[in-house]
Amino acid sequence: MPEFKRLRAEFLKRIAQSLLSLRPDSGVPNFADAGTKRSVAVATKLVEILGFQLRQEAIDVQTVGTKFAAEVCEYLKAAFSLLAHVRPGSWHFSTTQANVGIGAFDQYEHLPAIQTLLGQQRDLQSALGSNYLIRPDITVAREPLTDAQLNTRQQLVDADETVARRSPLRAANREQTLPTLHACISCKWTMRTDRAQNARTEALNLIRNRKGHVPHISLVTFEPTPNIIASMALGTGDLDCVYHPTLPELIEAVREAGSEDAQEMLEILVAGRRLRDLSDLPLDLAL
Question: DSSP letter at 237?
Answer without folding.
Answer: S
